[in-house]
Amino acid sequence: MLTRRLLIVEDDARLRTIVREFARIRARGLPFRVETREAGDLETALALLPQVHAVLCDGSFPETPRDLPGCNWQKLSNACDAHAIPFVLLSGDDVMVGVASQRGVMAYSKTRTPFLRIELGFPPIDTLLRALGAESCEARRSTPVENPRVLEMNGTNQHLGDEEEVEDDLHR
Prior knowledge:
Blueprint: E1 3-9, H1 13-26, E2 33-39, H2 42-48, E3 54-58, H3 73-82, E4 87-91, H4 94-102, E5 106-109, H5 123-140, H6 148-151, H7 162-170
Parallel strand pairs: 1-2, 1-3, 3-4, 4-5
C-alpha cells in the first residue's frame, strides 16, 4: 500500500495531537496509508519538508528575529510551492486567513472550523487528503489517460470506487 506523509506544523503540542488524530480518523478507508510528521517551529518544518507529501501549517508560531510579525508561515508555503507540495494554512487569526486566501493559499480559520464533530469532516485535513489521493492515483497510473471522462475528473470529486472504473476504461 502506498504511504503518504502529512506534516503538521503547530507550536501547541495539544493541538498537534488533535490534528494528528483527526488525520488518522479521516484517512480510514483511503487507498493509501497516511503517516504524520510534526514540527513545532519553522526550522524543524523546513528540515522535514523533503520527507513529506503535504503540509498543514499553523498561522503563527514562534518567530525568529528575521521574520516579519505573523508571516513566518509564508517561508514554508513558498518552499512547498517550489516543490509542488500541497500546503494548507490553519490559523486562529481570521485576518491572516483572509490575507492568505487573497494570495492564493488554501486557508482555514481555527475559530470557524468544527473541531468537535469529526464525523462531519474536518476541511483542512480533508483538503490535504484529497490532494494526497490525487497524487496516489498519479503514482499508481503507469499509462497515460486518454479517456475524456477521466481527464475531466479532479481530486475533489473522485470517489474510491472510481478507480476500478478508470482501470476498466483504460483497458477497453
